[in-house]
Design goal:
Largest sheet: 3 strands, antiparallel
Radius of gyration: 16 Å
Shape: elongated
Number of strands: 3
Number of helices: 1
Number of domains: 1
CATH architecture: 2-Layer Sandwich
Helix content: 10-25%
CATH class: Alpha Beta
Distance between the termini: 18 Å
Strand order of the largest sheet: 1-3-2
Order of helices and strands: EHEE
Length: 73
């Protein structure tokens, strides 16, 4: 019998002072440093933080999925 694959999904928020694209890139770049076998990055929500009526920071909420590894016996 073949075991099926299992994936874990986490949600992270990235920020950037320049763009939403950079905010998403921040999430992916950081996640690849500690997670293996990332499969999908899904942008769920975009917003901005305001200061004195101006955009101070772009924020991206991103769901990432990666293959869940079997525990060692």
């Amino acid at each position: 019998m073949t075991d099926g694959d299992v994936y874990k999904v986490i949600e992270l928020i990235g920020t950037s002072t320049t763009s939403w694209e950079e905010a998403v890139k921040t999430v992916v770049d950081r996640a690849t440093k500690t997670l293996r076998d990332l499969r999908i990055a899904e942008v769920k929500e975009l917003d901005v933080r305001l200061e004195n009526g101006k955009i101070a920071e772009y924020r991206a909420k991103v769901r990432l999925s990666f293959k869940y590894e079997k525990e060692c016996d």
